[in-house]
Amino acid sequence: MTRFVRWTALAVTSALLAAGCGGGSSDDDKRGLSWGRCEATGDAPAPSSDWQCATLKVPLDWSKPDGETIGLALIRAKARGDDRVGSLLFNFGGPGASGVSMMPSYAPTVSSLRERYDLVSWDPRGVGASEGVRCRGDKEIQAAESVDATPDTPAEEKAYFQDAADFAKGCRKDAGKLMAHVSTADSARDMDRIREVLGDEKMHYFGISYGTELGGTYAHLFPKNVGRMTLDAVVDPGADAVGHARNQARGFQRALNGYLKSTGQDPAEGSRKIADLLRRIDARPLPTGTPGRKLTQTLAVTGIILPLYSRDSWPTLTSALDAAERGDGSELLTLADRYNERDPSGGYGTTTHAQRVISCLDDRQRPTAATTRKLLPQFEKISPVFGTFLGWDTAGWCHDWPVPGQHDTPEVSAPGAAPVLVVGNTGDPATPYEGARRMADELGKGVGVMLTWRGEGHGAYGSGSDCVDSTVDAYLLDGSVPKDGKVCS
After folding, report:
1. Which of 12, 284, 322, 403 is 20 to 30 A from 84 in CA distance terms?
2. Which of the four pLDDT bands, split at 50, 70 and 90, describes residue 220?
3. How many Cα atoms within 13 Å fall on the side-chain side of residue 440?
4. How far is CA 1 from CA 9, 196, 265, in A?
5. How many Å apart are CA 225 and CA 202, to the nearest integer?
């Protein structure tokens, strides 16, 4: 079971980098950081010597600042130029993305920003090298692939909810008391501690996908500390758990329609064809080239989702769908495995584990099976391809969760904060464009500044628009705030 909110660049790398020893400056040492070389873990090589890693101790429970602590893994590359603004902190989404592993691979995209900023990221609490949570083993994850995420019978429904309950128990066993302290608000407070130890008066920040919700939460908690903040691929702060699933059904269907039009197909007819293929796979999973593994309906949906994150991947989707129509599920399985971070040896990443632990602590709403059954018709109307899957997800995602959620929707109002640049992409599948407008409005008048890109894919910066890139660069590098409502086509 996977909630589709992650940023596509998560597929770039899954390495976790640990903090090295020594090499920190005396000022860093005084602030509680000792920077050293980043070391490789697993099969992934260490990044170049440009990068330094460190571990920062923060309170487990921010209501008890002098109590038990946990370690946060940080990574940075220092600014190249002499006219340094400060540190620019990145969060790559999820929730659950490892900033320590992703920052070096993303650095070429933001190379212009490194002229005036130290590029900094971290593994948020519960993620990767920062007390990362693992809720089940690789064999259990693969076994769960056979669970039908769109149950059609009482037996399938029972298995679906039992799997969700088992996952929650595994999270509780692994995370222990950390499970109640991995909320977005907890991470926002961690961010302010990171700002302090980096020696920055203001928080300069680049949040992507879920990172926009984290950025909005930070702005609400610490409005006077906001410096230059960019939010790209924006999560709708006004959507509750059901509303978010509804938004995603709309966004992915919108992206699928764009894909179908690009292949010369009528979107309605093409969607019906794909929905029919998924029904056939639900009844009889397809064989693949991997011994012992078949393409289930859930894996097929996941495989369709991944290439919709980027227009460049649309030809891959065409090939995979054509193969599935011929009875071969190998290509869609490969795409699903990429999304699920499954390596050739059968090992799985844990991004979705952290994603669930964090989001279920955030979300108070707990739809029941009965509620979901009533919602299914509207979800199916929004998207004949993704609606049923995302509708059932509203009930299964946090089913039988051992800790209560904290809110229905996050609070992001930030009166008195400096202008925050909110970037919305009209063709974004995972975080539909409407959410960006909502974020800009809820940040408050004079705070939320809207920039629109009429494009495709998840996120706008670095996606091929010189207009978007130059506008964001001018804001972050020079403090040049664009006119609210600017549109890049």
Report:
1. 12
2. very high
3. 22
4. 20, 38, 30
5. 5
Q: Whole-angstrom Cα distance, residue 324 to residue 275? A: 12
Non-local CB neighbours of 472 within 8 Å, separated by 6+ positions: 230, 232, 421, 423, 451, 461
Cα–Cα distance for residue pair 383/435, rounded to 1 Å: 18
Q: Up-side HSE of residue 185: CA atoms within 13 Å toward CB?
A: 17
pLDDT tens, residue by residue, 23-55:
444 455 556 699 999 988 655 678 999 999 999
| Strand pairing report for 203-208 and 294-295 | unpaired
209 is catalytic: yes
C-alpha to C-alpha distance for 136 and 152, rounded to whole angstroms: 26
Quote the pLDDT of residue 24: 44
Closest CA to 87 of 97, 77, 96: 77
What is the spatial distance between Cα 340 and Cα 351, in angstroms, rounded to a whole number?
A: 8
- The HSE-up count of residue 39 (CA atoms within 13 Å, CB side) is 12
Give me the helices (H) in 199-296, please: 210-221, 241-262, 267-283
The CB-side HSE value for 355 (13 A sphere, CA atoms) comes to 23
Q: How far, in Å, CA of 201 to CA of 243, rounded?
A: 36
**Annotation says 428 is catalytic:** yes
What is the rounded (10 degree) CA torsion for 76, 77, 80, 86? Answer: 0
Residue of 121, 187, 209, 463 marked catalytic? 209
Which of 458, 463, 465, 473 is an active site residue? 458
Distance (Å, whole) CA 113 – CA 230: 12
In eight-state DSSP terms, residue 61 is S
CA quadruple 101, 40, 139, 157: dihedral, nearest 10? -10
Amino acid at 216: G
What are 355-407's pLDDT values in tens digits?
999 999 999 999 999 999 999 999 999 999 999 999 999 999 999 999 999 99
Give the pLDDT confidence of 153-207 residue by residue, as tens digits. 999 999 999 999 999 999 999 999 999 999 999 999 999 999 999 999 999 999 9
* Tokens (6 digits) for 461: 């910066």
Q: Rounded to an integer, what is the distance from CA 296 to the centroid of its chain?
A: 24
Helix (H), strand (E) counts: the chain:
16, 12
Q: What is the pTM of this model?
A: 0.93
What count of Cα atoms within 13 Å lies in the side-chain half-sphere of residue 382? 21
Around Cβ 319, how many Cβ atoms within 10 Å? Answer: 13
What are 422's two structure tokens?
A: 């909110």
Q: Which of 148, 163, 236, 428 is catalytic?
A: 428
Average pLDDT score, the chain? 93
Which residue(s) pair with 163 in the sheet? none
Q: Are 307 and 313 in contact (CB under 8 A)?
A: yes
